[in-house]
Write a structure and sequence with these properties.
By secondary structure, the chain is α+β, with helices and mostly antiparallel strands. The chain has a single domain (4-182), classed as Beta Barrel (FomD barrel-like fold). The protein is built from 3 helices and 8 strands. It is globular.
Length: 183
């Protein structure tokens, strides 16, 4: 999959979006993104990789971030510098708050990757990450029953309906690009 904005020449709208990832221990990580779309229920931002970035991606790679109020996931769609889709990364989240220039959420540890399957042209491979952190947090009592339920629910949705989740993400990004093109 190639990125539509590369072909259309869309430029990001002016403004920045700060992503605030709150951890279970109360600490925060902040990431500055291009602000593409912010509504009461949806935020879409894009991060551009510079040389020697913390994520180890090649310079010029980029990641779309999509968050919804009322959905227990935040999703990143990562692309190579030429626009080729690398993977989707899904975080289980709660307490999503969207403001004009800020997206805040609490990270619930479990992450998943959906990567194009090289052996199946239209398929994707699902891989869960940080399950050891979830187990440790459960053992320590830092995850509530509701948070555990949320993690398990997202796992089930990804295992049975990952193509639907990709569709939600792709539609949100397409809406952001279309809105920028119309401005």
């Amino acid at each position: 999959m190639r990125e539509a904005s590369e072909a259309s020449g869309s430029r990001p709208p002016p403004g920045r979006l700060v992503e605030v990832k709150r951890k279970l221990d109360g600490s925060e990580q902040r990431f500055e993104l291009e602000r593409w779309l912010v509504r009461r229920d949806l935020a879409v931002g894009r991060w551009l990789a510079e040389t020697d970035n913390v994520f180890g991606l090649p310079a010029g790679s980029y990641s779309w971030g999509v968050w919804w109020v009322g959905r227990p996931i935040g999703v990143y769609r990562l692309h190579a510098p030429d626009g080729e889709l690398l993977r989707y990364r899904i975080d289980v989240v709660e307490a999503v708050e969207i403001e004009e220039d800020t997206i805040r959420y609490r990270d619930l540890l479990l992450d998943a990757r959906l990567a194009p399957d090289e052996e199946e042209s239209a398929g994707f491979t699902l891989h869960f990450e940080d399950e050891d952190e979830v187990a440790a947090a459960l053992a320590a009592g830092t995850l509530s029953r509701e948070q555990r339920w949320r993690i398990d629910w997202v796992r089930g949705v990804l295992e049975s309906r990952s193509s639907e989740v990709r569709g939600w993400v792709d539609a949100a990004i397409e809406e952001a690009i279309a809105g920028a093109s119309a401005d």
